[in-house]
């Protein structure tokens, strides 16, 4: 099967559709309580996109819609709207738009937003979502994997590292069965902008993310929550360029050695 060619608008539409699946399940679970936060997040994302598009004399970009949807999916219930607005604005501007928009930075704006929220405000609860949201997130992840928008190498590397290290926790692998973790893996850790882009680098990026997740998780949590997930995603993103650089350097050295050996044989 030939995969479609992804331009910016098609990519945004596919990712937004993927995020909408678990978001619909969460709205069905929580009711109308999520609607104000969703409306605020969408409005803020589009306003900031419009401001920077106008300032740079560029066409309007719509990737902020995906940022808003994923942010609302992961932000815990009960966080005041003004804290959500401040955190999301911080993440969109300093995590994406200040670099020129999606694809020009090295961090996912949702990771930056939630990191700001967790660091700046005390007493942020963990996001709690039921089984329907977990199942919907799994469906969304499978679709994005099939479309090639999520790297199976990152997902597999993450699952292997986190799964093996989770065996040392009281709850074992069951600790990893949360909608928050699955959504974060699909939309944050495996985000092509914030992840390694070489094939070997993707394996290493996924494994590093999984290892950091277990390292940051405390032994008292029944299910790994938002804080260790975001911390792992943030640090792994910072290491992604270094991972790729190391892989490229290694590949270059190996290629040079093969050429030298081939020249000697010739």
Give structural notes.
The chain is mostly helical and 266 residues long. The chain has one domain (8-252). 69% of the residues lie in helices and 0% in strands. The chain contains ten helices and no strands. It has helices at 8-30, 35-56, 63-74, 81-95, 109-120, 131-146, 152-166, 179-189, 199-216, 226-265. The longest helix is centred in the C-terminal third of the chain and has 40 residues, at 226-265. The mean pLDDT is 87.
Question: Helices and strands in order, then pairings?
Answer:
Layout: H1 8-30, H2 35-56, H3 63-74, H4 81-95, H5 109-120, H6 131-146, H7 152-166, H8 179-189, H9 199-216, H10 226-265
Helix pairs in contact: 1-3, 1-6, 2-3, 2-4, 3-5, 4-5, 5-10, 6-8, 7-9, 8-10, 9-10
Summarize the structure in short.
With 266 residues, the protein is an all-alpha fold. The chain contains ten helices and no strands.
Q: Approximately how much beta-strand content do the residues carry? A: under 5%
Gyration radius, rounded: 19 Å
Taking pLDDT < 50 over at least 5 consecutive residues as the criterion, the unreliable ranges are: none
Which structural class is indicated by helix and strand composition? mainly alpha
Mean pLDDT: 87
Keywords:
0% strand, 69% helix, mainly alpha, 266 residues
């Amino acid at each position: 099967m030939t995969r479609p060619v992804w331009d910016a608008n098609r990519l945004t539409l596919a990712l937004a559709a993927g995020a909408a699946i678990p978001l619909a399940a969460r709205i069905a679970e929580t009711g109308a309580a999520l609607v104000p936060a969703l409306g605020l997040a969408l409005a803020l994302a589009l306003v900031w996109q419009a401001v920077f598009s106008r300032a740079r004399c560029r066409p309007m970009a719509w990737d902020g819609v995906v940022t808003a949807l994923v942010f609302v999916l992961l932000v815990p219930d009960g966080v005041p709207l003004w804290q959500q607005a401040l955190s999301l604005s911080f993440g969109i501007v300093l995590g994406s738009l200040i670099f020129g928009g999606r694809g020009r930075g090295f961090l996912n704006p949702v990771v930056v937003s939630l990191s700001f929220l967790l660091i700046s405000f005390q007493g942020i609860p963990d996001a709690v979502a039921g089984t329907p949201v977990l199942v919907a997130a799994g469906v969304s992840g499978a679709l994005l994997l099939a479309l090639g928008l999520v790297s199976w190498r990152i997902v597999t590397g993450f699952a292997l590292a986190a799964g093996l290290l989770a065996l040392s926790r009281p709850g074992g692998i069951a600790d990893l069965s949360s909608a928050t973790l699955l959504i974060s893996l699909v939309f944050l850790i495996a985000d092509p902008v914030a992840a390694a882009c070489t094939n070997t680098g993707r394996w290493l990026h996924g494994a590093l993310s999984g290892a950091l997740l277990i390292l940051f998780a405390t032994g008292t949590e029944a299910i790994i929550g938002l804080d260790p997930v975001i911390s792992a995603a943030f640090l792994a993103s910072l290491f992604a360029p270094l991972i790729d650089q190391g892989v490229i350097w290694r590949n270059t050295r190996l290629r040079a050695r093969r050429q030298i050996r081939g020249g000697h044989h010739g």
